[in-house]
Amino acid sequence: MTSTSTSTGGSPLSPTARTTVTRGRNRAVVDRAALHALLADALVAHLGVVLDGHPLVLSAAYAFDPAGPDRDGTLYLHGSVAARWLRASGAATVCVTVTQLDGLVVGRSAFHHSMNYRSAVVIGLARPVVDPAEKDRALAMVVDHMLPERSATLRASTRKELAATAVLAVSLHEASVKERAGGPGDEPEDVAAGTWGGHIPLRVVAGAPVPDEDARGAVPPDVTARAVRMAPGGPAASRPGAR
Amino acid sequence: MTSTSTSTGGSPLSPTARTTVTRGRNRAVVDRAALHALLADALVAHLGVVLDGHPLVLSAAYAFDPAGPDRDGTLYLHGSVAARWLRASGAATVCVTVTQLDGLVVGRSAFHHSMNYRSAVVIGLARPVVDPAEKDRALAMVVDHMLPERSATLRASTRKELAATAVLAVSLHEASVKERAGGPGDEPEDVAAGTWGGHIPLRVVAGAPVPDEDARGAVPPDVTARAVRMAPGGPAASRPGAR
Q1: Which of A20, A27, A46 to mutate to test the interface with B (most CBs of B within 10 A)?
Q2: How high is the ipTM of this complex?
Q3: Nearest chain A Cα to B219, which residue?
Q4: Which of A135, A150, A211, B54 fits as disulfide partner to A93, beta carbons 3.0 to 4.6 Å?
Q5: Per the structure, how many domains does chain A have?
Q6: In chain B, which residues have their Cβ closer than 8 Å to the Cβ of A44?
Q7: DSSP category for residue A56
Q8: How far does the CA of residue A9 sit from the closest CA of chain B (Å)?
Q9: B127-182: per-residue pLDDT in tens?
Q10: In chain A, which residue ranges form alpha helices assigned H by DSSP?
């Protein structure tokens, strides 16, 4: 089993008991730069809340600001103000998990099949963002997380649009990151049997931008840039396997 | 805003209040075939549990059996018996969410940026799988979910390996599916301004299998088949955008 630890600087993560990685310790990553790299690469977060006494997990778009107003930076999630889970999670403890799947691990036994991945778990109080300036900025960041530099090309959000959108902020302080990379950690006797083991790299790629029926003019450069960066032959993201 | 509803047969989903889609109703999908198609395409589940009073969301490999022993079929998750969350979720209510990201929606305003995705939310009591035959079968299904037909090529799991692995089963009965596809649902005045709108399709693709340092012989056909099926130029999965 191969463990990859990124060491590209930044202040260390300080996980508490509830975010401490208790399994597969060799896969835990403790520098904040690894957290930031993962959050920069991934596009979807899974938000866990407790609703009516049971857990509820929903996918959401997000953005993050290492210099945000919360301790060690801010993770922003947005949704409709009418969404039950967003209302339920205001001022409650939430868990935001962001996972990037990097590959399938092909072992020589069922037991040693695995996946290569990076996964961050962030736990904290959800702070409803009410300040209009912070809300506007957070929503622009969510757009720019999907499509870098796009928000600057768009008209300002209307008061009605801002009022219809709820934004939650979670501190990046209480966080942990796990990573797995490489091939299987097979049993010596299975290796000795002389069969094949390894892994299949996986990656999210973009196709060509698809215009809607009302589209006029050329594809904007920010959209083209995003599609090219994520094209099958494009530059790799900061995946462990790509370093 | 474009809504895609699959209608490929199967008994309808019967969501309860806690799995009823309350936002974006036009995106709710109510046939069980859409749930099965999503579960077949995706590779990672996010399991939400309540641990020490707060939500915890962790990524996990999974498999599903539409003919499994639980009502409307069974979703299987596996992990180490030492994993805190697996122990915590035995006989507790859990939420398993499976999300497939299908694209980035490029709106003509920040408000109408979105993502194309399919997401299933399954809520139910987690049943620890203790029967050795069911456990062995579930673990084979998890391997085959990653790499179809692979488990039949592997040696049997040892008693030690089975004992070291915990498997949770969750009924697929209480489930909901949301889907979004297509371009943005822009405001008429933004469309009238005559700019570009549309979407960028996204897809998970595989690279060539990477042998580990002990690998001998040819890449097994099941591994090659998986990599080819997920190759950038390979056949599309059952994504709404691909139909």
Answers
A1: A46
A2: 0.88
A3: A196
A4: B54
A5: 1
A6: 99, 101, 115, 117
A7: E
A8: 26
A9: 999 999 999 999 999 999 999 999 999 999 999 999 888 999 999 999 999 999 99
A10: 32-41, 84-89, 132-146, 159-163, 188-192, 221-229
CB count in 10 Å sphere of residue B128: 15
pLDDT tens by residue, A30-79? 789 999 999 999 999 999 999 888 999 999 999 999 999 999 999 999 87
Cβ <8 Å between B202 and A200: no
CATH, residue A140:
2.30.110.10
E strands, B13-106, are 28-29, 44-51, 54-65, 74-80, 93-106
Contact (Cβ atoms closer than 8 angstroms) between residue A132 and residue A162: yes
* Residue A130 placed within a domain: yes
Task: Indicate left, alpha or beta for B29 from its phi (over 0: left) and psi (-120 to 50: alpha).
Answer: beta
Domain interval for residue A104: 25-186+194-204
Q: Which residue of B has its CA nearest to A105?
A: B146
Residue B153 covered by a domain: yes
Give strand pairing partners of A80: A165
- Closest by CA position to A192, among listed A104, A108, A112: A108
With respect to residue B9, please indicate whether it lies within any of the assigned structural domains. no
Residues B172, B183 contacting (CB under 8 angstroms): no
Contact B198 A205 (CB under 8 A): no
- Is residue B18 assigned to a domain? no
Per the CB < 8 A criterion, the answer to whether A6 and A29 are in contact is: yes
Q: Rounded CA gap, B55 and A126, in Å? A: 12
Cβ-defined contact of B204 to A202 (cutoff 8 Å): yes
